[in-house]
Amino acid sequence: MPANTLNRRHFLRLGAVASAAALVPHWLTAQAADMVAQSRATAAKTPITTTKLYDNLFLLQGVGGNMALQTGPDGKILIDSSYSTAVPGILDAIKKAGEGPAYTLINTHWHFDHTDGNEAIHAAGYRILAHENTRARLSSPQTIKAFGLSLPAAPAGALPTATFGSSFHIWKNGDSLDLVHFDPAHTDSDIYIHFHKADVLHVGDTWFNGFYPFIDESSGGSIGGMIAANVTALNIASDTTKIIPGHGPVGSKADLQRFHDVLSAIRDKVAALKAQGLTEKEAAAKKPTAEFDSVWGHGILTPDQFVGIVYRTI
After folding, report:
1. Closest CA to 53 of 208, 250, 235
2. Partners of residue 78 on adjacent β-strands
3. CA–CA separation, 81 and 67 (whole Å)
4. In principle, which of 11, 26, 188, 309 could form an S-S bond with 300, CB 3.0–4.6 Å?
């Protein structure tokens, strides 16, 4: 079964948990915690697929967020670590992809479907590099209110061993990499990684390719921040750039432009309704996403849930 199908099914389960939150909040935390365990169980038995994007640059996909791998004699660079139970498969895929010693794991942001494997990847010889807010959030208990998730602090071995503020640069394996912090977008810890020679841009969860995105308002995320992050990425990308989203298939600048345009249109519609004095529930009842739902409304969030996040974070 294709990794993208599993990825979508995983998000539909998350969306079901979020839907239940509004109806039975007294048991949501226990169910959400069970959802994490189920995700790890699914990751343990889901193969990691490898897709070549450039001579020494690969897309790795399983159940968690999209990963990327650069290989070469200067040391292997992995972007994101998925779930802890996926790590044996990830390490096997890394070994098969090409030569080179372990070097660095980069986290695009703090969320557990991108960092749960950190500790095991670190134990395999990789240092961990991320934005300073990623370390800060992993170092302390966090709550993702939309899913009723209360997460403990990550173990010491999972924490970034090096952090940066606005930007960082790496020269490795014949390419130069820009690591740059977005202003708060999906969270307050998001970064992009731009491989110049390979012409590949990993934008993490500032892009969910093909469906309405989850925006973590508990971590400083907002609809305006997501749109601004898309503008930043669009200004970097060329018509030939391969853009890796946090979830969904690799896309083009044109694909990201469509996502940006949909978010902008929905933001403007919801803002107008809010300015008229409508409540969040009343705004959702007006179905401001209706023209987009047939394409974008089948992912992690229902259209009404996405409208709620937009309304609250305008």
Report:
1. 250
2. 69, 105
3. 7
4. 11
Is the pLDDT at 137 greater than 50, yes or no?
A: yes
Please give the torsion angle defined by the CA atoms of residues 92, 96, 98 and 104, in that order, rounded to the nearest 10 degrees: -10
Q: pLDDT by residue (tens digit) across 43-68?
A: 999 999 999 999 999 999 999 999 99
What's the mean pLDDT in 167-186?
98
Task: Map residue 6 onto helix, strand or coil.
Answer: helix
Tell me the H-state helices in 53-155: 87-97, 112-115, 118-123, 132-138
Q: How far apart are CA 30 and CA 104, in angstroms?
A: 35
260 residue type, one letter:
H
pLDDT per position as a tens digit, 261-271: 999 999 999 99
Domain-by-domain residue ranges, the chain?
3-313
Q: What is the DSSP letter of 276?
A: T
Q: Which amino acid is at 180?
A: V
Please check whether the domain covering 3-313 is classified as CATH 3.30.1330.10: no
- Statement: residue 27 has pLDDT above 60: no
Burial 68-79 (b: 16+ CB within 10 A, else e): bbbbbebbbbbb
Of the chain, the percentage scoring pLDDT greater than 90 comes to 85
Burial class (CB in 10 A: 0-12, 13-18, 19+), 161: middle
